[in-house]
């Protein structure tokens, strides 16, 4: 098949490897391969390990299709079609457990590839995405035949975007997300060496993968890649040694852990002040709203907390993204979903008042959250008061943001917490009097009707919260 330049959209994050490039045509996710990459694809397809990992869902389903012309006008030797990932997330939106499981899958795939005579050119966390609570490797173009005596080309990327963030959180209790959000290439070895001084130098994984790695980088800063490879071959570096190294890294990553701390949000359902009648009425309202939405493709649960309403949404939708600010709460939810084998609910860490911006090259290599978060249905339950009262975001702007998360013709299910509600009073306790004169139910409803049509509404039995189903 041939397609015009105007009908193709190139993936902004796919430009670093000239041998293959991801682009979109209609609903298809395609990857063009140059002649060398095409030959490697044929060899890869003929192995036993690659089809096995595809069948297990550990590598994104991929098939070859007829070559097409891409915007540059050059002809790819082969074009692959990938199964579309329902929602693209970034490593700085993952919990600790998610990042660790992504790292383990990356290493498992590399180990399998090495055993079959292949390796991966990259080791980036961005090579992985999610099917619910299951990680999936998406960079099929990264595979290439292994050459004896050469180190894993992706080791540095793996350390900077996966291993180092895990070490920072597991050993120091620091949140890795700000590092990854601010540096698309991850944490540098030199930065890690400054964090791990004194007795910290001896913590698990630090001597070999931080200090020794950093020293080798510094020593070989002026050497060419060819020189480094020659030195390793002369020193007896082999595929067996590479496999042993990968197995050692797998053991290390499995032993790293960071358990969520007990806190208010980790037990929200007990501390939020809902009565049993309130909770029952709220669940019934949400269930009915989703059932009437005609089996939506994507539901955003904004402020998902422990995932109670994400689970209700999953009964009626193809896919649900559970968005929560607290990384410990997301980690607890992820571990539960992972144990259940859930593949239709994806938990992500995102502060709705400060969502992930665009990043990387020209600010578009990694799309911002707002550019990705457009759904058929958005749930905004117990969110408005936190943004309006807790974060001082004007009520009209809160609603503009929420409505913007829904496609035209979609639904917004939103909860308004009245000023007299105990939670609202708690948020107002340390605010100057008269700071929020427009935070009233009547004002909220007027703003809502300007942005959509209220189809249903329900005041909860407590009398201090109201739910709305809005056609956008």
Keywords for this entry:
18% strand; 472 residues; single chain; alpha/beta; 5-stranded antiparallel beta sheet; 7-stranded mixed beta sheet; globular
Walkthrough of the structure:
The chain is of the alpha/beta class and 472 residues long. Helices cover 40% and strands 18% of the residues. It has 18 helices and 16 strands. The strands form four sheets. A seven-stranded mixed sheet has the order 12-11-10-13-14-16-15, with helices on both faces. A hairpin with a 2-residue loop joins β7 and β8. α3 runs antiparallel to α4 and α6 crosses α7. The chain is globular and about 70 Å long. The chain starts with 7 loop residues before the first strand and ends with a strand. The mean pLDDT is 91.
Classify the secondary structure makeup into a structural class.
Answer: alpha/beta
Helical content stands at 40-55%
Number of helices in the DSSP assignment:
18
Distance between the termini: 38 Å
* Overall pLDDT level: 91
Largest sheet: 7 strands, mixed
* Residue fraction in strands: 15-25%
Query: What's the total count of β strands?
Result: 16
**Spatial arrangement of strands, main beta sheet:** 12-11-10-13-14-16-15
